[in-house]
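Purpose: get a first structural picture of the assembly so the mutagenesis plan has something to point at.
Setup: four entries, given in the order below. No constraints added.
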Amino acid sequence: MSALPANVASRTDAVARILDAAAGLFAESSYDAVSMNAIAERAGVSKANIFHHFSSKESLYLAVVRAACHDVGERLGELGTEHGPFAQRFSSYAASMLNDMLEHDQIQRLILRELLVDGERRGQEFAEKVFGENFARFVAILRQGQLKGHLRADLDPAMIATVLIGSNVFFFEARDVLKHFRDVNFANDPARYSTMLVDILMHGIARTPGSPAAPTAGN
Amino acid sequence: MSALPANVASRTDAVARILDAAAGLFAESSYDAVSMNAIAERAGVSKANIFHHFSSKESLYLAVVRAACHDVGERLGELGTEHGPFAQRFSSYAASMLNDMLEHDQIQRLILRELLVDGERRGQEFAEKVFGENFARFVAILRQGQLKGHLRADLDPAMIATVLIGSNVFFFEARDVLKHFRDVNFANDPARYSTMLVDILMHGIARTPGSPAAPTAGN
DNA sequence: GGATTTGCCGACCGACCGGTCAGTCAGTAT
DNA sequence: ATACTGACTGACCGGTCGGTCGGCAAATCC
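Result (structure tokens, whole complex):
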């Protein structure tokens, strides 16, 4: 699996396997439903060895959550780097975000569950270390879109960001219910969902003749 | 607490207390994190008595989830009964839904977690028994809004419903994170969130001079 | 080449888990 | 009084939990 030299690999291999196994199991089930025995078995190490590398189950769990947060943060960071017209960038951002969530199903589940179970305590940590920077960056992009006249100036850009993110997150977590609704035909088609979502948002966000806007209309 | 005669009350009181205690604990923590001992203690009954009324922990949990679903379904059913202009009804519906979720925090958490952990299996059940009817009713209202010319006719009404519900659900589950963002000032103000959400949605949903609409402009 | 460190393991611990069981007790129909 | 019922309990079960401990084998240091 690893292309590193044996000695280097063996020093980190076990830890990595433990983290991988734990991440998978924690994503599938809740904290208490995952036993150290199960993690040890999947990782192919002894349970005692896990306690050799991690001081407790809690600390292993935190390491897994931290790694997941790091991954999510990194992937989010890659999103805002695209070019082109504003509307296209916005649309591409929305679609990429949704695809990314669906692609990393397990990590996403882990973080969402963590939020649901212990939002009060984890809220600040998540806000600062995981989403904070990327959220602020997205808001900045939207604010610039307002200044350039692409978006209504009387809206809170943070609110726009929240609605877009929220609609994507909801699709992620509710698709299993949505696909059983007669009226819904987009539950298995995230691309279509994304297109329609951006349509709905843009025609409320985009400048229209009746809404106020900055006097300098660019692009 | 109960005004019923002692003999009748005593027949159901214990079961009700068990269900209440279990609902509270299951909403706070995951299935595995809640022990039968803890439920018994909070309910003020012996653990053995719980097994006298429920065949297993699993069956008790199912009873709790079923009750929660029933409650949610009932409360959702009361939402679509208002009168007045379409825009006002839509706005009121959105605000009521959000308030309702915040007010019944525990039940909402329970259901959302159930969805996250086991969406595949619970999806159909939830769709049919909990949300199905109410979702369909909301979609019907939106469809009528399209026919009457209040909403753009080229949008999927189920999509509109999903975005509204999703934005509300996301606010519910992410408010603890949102309130730590510098750019966000609505995390503790659901009414303001609701107002802004409806603003964003309506000006993409509502008929505008540039978008197609049914020829008959009512209201 | 002996001592030390490091990665790792099997065996084990007390605590607690979900669940069972024999039996108490109040009510009630006969 | 008798017989029976369902609600209820404390004591207890086998099993699993998170976590510990002593020791093995290989690398590393001196």
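Residues 105-147 of chain A form the longest helix (43 residues).
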